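Entry details:
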Amino acid sequence: MPKLKSNRGAAKRFSKTGSGRIKRRQSFKNHILTKKSPKRKRQLRHGALIAHADEAAVRQMLPGL
């Protein structure tokens, strides 16, 4: 049986929490930051969990997770 390969793009974007859920980074914090308020940028620092609907797709891309 060959080794299972992870999708490397997904591996760089997602990580697992202690309880087994999948964590992601917030979007909209990359460029064009001057027009965004400090409060909005500060709140975007924190990560978020992926939606339950997307969990199966992400787990399929990352078999070792």
